[in-house]
Amino acid sequence: MIDHKSTQRQVDIKIKKQEERWWDRLTLQEKKPLFLGPDFDRWLDESDAEMELQTKEEKINKISVESRIRKDPYVGLKRGYLFVYNLVQFLGFSWIFVNMTVRLFILGQDSFYDTFHTMADMMYFCQMMAVFEVINPLLGLVKTGFVPAMIQVSGRNVILFVIFGILEEMQNKPVVFFVFYLWSTIEIFRYPFYMLACIGTDWELLTWLRYSLWIPLYPLGVIAEAVALVQSLPIFDETRLFSLPLPAVLGHSLSFSYILQLYLVIMFLGLFFNFRHLSKQRRRRYRSRKRKIH
Ligand SMILES: CCCCCCCCCCCCC[C@@H](O)CC(=O)SCCNC(=O)CCNC(=O)[C@H](O)C(C)(C)COP(=O)(O)OP(=O)(O)OC[C@H]1O[C@@H](n2cnc3c(N)ncnc32)[C@H](O)[C@@H]1OP(=O)(O)O
């Protein structure tokens, strides 16, 4: 016995173990006397100890990450830049989404046919800005992989600038509506999620939407883009726009539509690659959250 204290209700006895190991019971005999009981406020078993160890490890990791972050003198500037970038993109895509939704309610199906003329300028702006999504990981500003970002940005820009932007015949087709609507639906959740990440916070519902909405939206988006591409093929065949000159023995020229058909295959490979990337991000996010909750 190393210490004891008597109160009106009980006698508290502190004893020190000779050897540091887990005890199966308090007394030598199996049945413990009724008057004897452990202090459950101080009770620890193997799983509690493991948790304590884990919490300590997490604290140490946090401190080391924080000290590394503190060493970077530009961290505030970087966060500020990312916050503004995400805010601008959020406002741009929200403008597109809200406008398209309102027009759909007012004009019904008629709104499908002039989506391009009403939304293109803002979409051009947002998608040109999206080039920073490729630059940011290159500069080490965000943890996004360069390849997934490149696939995403260039995939969309081919559709926007080449198929819709250059071919006037495509601009009043309903497919533009579906492509723009699917793109903007994900972005009105993704950018606010990043904005919150910049200020070190997150909302559970927003995080869930960011890491779940892509599951139906990504394949639908690629299907809509593929439809646009297929619809553009006869236009390229007819106009011979961007066709590649060939030697006389091989014919006059190779229609750009053949290149687009090859691109169609690449598009589905891109879908597969990014789908896998986003699944990994989702698993990583929810695995690390579960660990935090335990
Ligand atoms: C001419 C040659 C062309 C060759 C290419 C051809 C390929 C063609 C393929 C075309 C397929 C594209 C189809 C597509 O256009 C269809 C659609 O978009 S449909 C609509 C649905 N779409 C989506 O859901 C995709 C949305 N996009 C994305 O999610 C991203 O762009 C993507 C790069 C795909 C993945 O994102 P990311 O890797 O960034 O995941 P995380 O969100 O988990 O971010 C990782 C961590 O980095 C932090 N981060 C990232 N960006 C920011 C930022 N801007 N500000 C602040 N922080 C940022 C983020 O918080 C994460 O940090 P932590 O891990 O600490 O949480």
Description:
It is found in: Endoplasmic reticulum membrane; Membrane. The protein has one domain (71-293). A two-stranded antiparallel ribbon has the order 1-2. It has 294 residues and is mostly helical. Helix content is 67%, strand content 4%. Residues 82, 86, 142-145, 148-149, 151-152, 154-156, 158, 182-183, 186, 190, 194, 197-198, 214, 217-218, 221-222, 225, 266-267, 270-271, 274, 278, 281 line the site of ligand L7CU2Q4V. Ligand L7CU2Q4V binds next to helix 2, helix 5, helix 6, helix 8 and helix 9.
Task: Please tag this protein with its features.
single chain, mainly alpha, two-stranded antiparallel sheet, 9 helices, 67% helix, elongated, binds ligand L7CU2Q4V
- Rg calculated over all Cα atoms: 30 Å
Order of helices and strands: EEHHHHHHHHEEH
Q: Cα distance, first to last residue?
A: 36 Å
The total count of helices amounts to 9
Into how many domains do the coordinates divide?
1
Mean pLDDT: 90
Please estimate the helix content: 55-70%
Q: Main beta sheet: strand number and arrangement?
A: 2 strands, antiparallel
How would you describe the shape? elongated
Strand content bin: under 5%
- Flag low-confidence runs: none
Quick one: how many beta strands?
A: 4
For this entry, what is the oligomeric state of its chains? Answer: single chain
